Amino acid sequence: MGRCGGLAVVAALGLVPFAAVTPALAAGCAFAPQGEGRVAAIIDARSFRLEDGREIRLAGIEPVTAERSKDTSALSAILMGREVTLSGEDDTPDRYGRQPAFVFLGTAETPVQAQLLAQGAALVSGNVTDKDCAAALTAAEEAGRQSKQGIWADAAAIKNAESPGDILAGIGRFTVVEGRVLSVRQAGATTYLNFGRNWTRDFAVTISRRMLARVEAAGIALKSLENRRIRVRGFVESQQGPRIEVLHPGQIERVGGN
């Protein structure tokens, strides 16, 4: 069983029901060990400091909103003063000197990331390359969404692709957008998933040529997304209209069976 397999810890902490995520959590997030330590301070919504001075950033998730990125309450309730073990795909510090890691309480098999996602206190970033782990995080987020935990109590938590003004209001922020792809077009080295007919105003998703092979290797045939409803996540940019650039295949999620 992988490190994401332990549901008992989540249930014991009194979080949301995890019955819906059991299949996905029975696998992945089993990465190389990165050490252990005791949590001495919570820095922000997804990072903390160990007693030995190391600063750790929770891999695979983003804060629910820019305004709440400094809200430490959810992470503090889980981690403050606790012994943790770390694992990850890569322990190279980010530009702020924080080590990205999947974090576990003691010998627990459910990562702290999954707990925050199930509480609606974080969003899946979409950049985890391990398929089993990515599925586990997505399932945890879905559990929080289905039970309307945290951010999911707000019906507007997922932006409507047909409301470009609403999306553009979140420029520079990590945002989840859902809608039906009207067309898939290529212009130069960029492929566009268009959600409206006005290309200078409506929302679109962009995929650079260098990303196409990775997207296709993940089983996403872009032309097959026409007239399909998808959910996309990423940082909103303004390029004649609101845009989200796909840097990882996990940013694109098909919705339902349509």
Walkthrough of the structure:
The protein has about 260 residues and is an alpha+beta fold. Helix content is about 20%, strand content about 30%. Strands 8, 9, 10, 11, 12, 13, 14 and 15 form an eight-stranded mixed beta sheet that branches. A hairpin with a 2-residue loop joins strand 10 and strand 11 (about 190-195). The radius of gyration is 18 Å and the shape is globular. The two termini are about 35 Å apart. Residues about 1-25 have low confidence and may be disordered.
Compact description:
The chain is of the alpha+beta class. The protein has seven helices and 15 strands. Strands 8, 9, 10, 11, 12, 13, 14 and 15 form an eight-stranded mixed beta sheet that branches. Strands 1-2-3-6-5 form a five-stranded mixed β-barrel. A two-stranded antiparallel sheet has the order 4-7.
Q: Which SSEs are present, and which pair or pack?
A:
Blueprint: H1 8-12, H2 22-25, E1 32-44, E2 47-50, E3 55-58, E4 61-62, H3 73-79, E5 83-88, E6 99-105, H4 112-118, E7 123-124, H5 131-146, E8 159-160, H6 164-168, E9 174-180, E10 183-187, E11 190-194, E12 204-208, H7 209-217, E13 229-238, E14 242-245, E15 252-254
Parallel strand pairs: 3-6, 8-9, 12-14
Antiparallel strand pairs: 1-2, 1-5, 2-3, 4-7, 5-6, 9-13, 10-11, 11-12, 13-14, 13-15
Helix pairs in contact: 4-5
Question: In what range is the share of β-strand residues?
Answer: 25-35%
The helix count comes to: 7
Through-space gap between termini:
33 Å
- Kindly name the structural category: alpha+beta
Please write the string of helix (H) and strand (E) elements.
Answer: HHEEEEHEEHEHEHEEEEHEEE
Tell me the helix content.
10-25%
Radius of gyration using CA atoms only: 18 Å
The overall pLDDT average reads: 87
Q: Runs with pLDDT <50, length 5+? A: 1-27
Total strands: the figure is: 15
What global shape is seen? Answer: globular
Please describe the biggest sheet, giving its number of strands, its sense, and whether it closes into a barrel. Answer: 8 strands, mixed
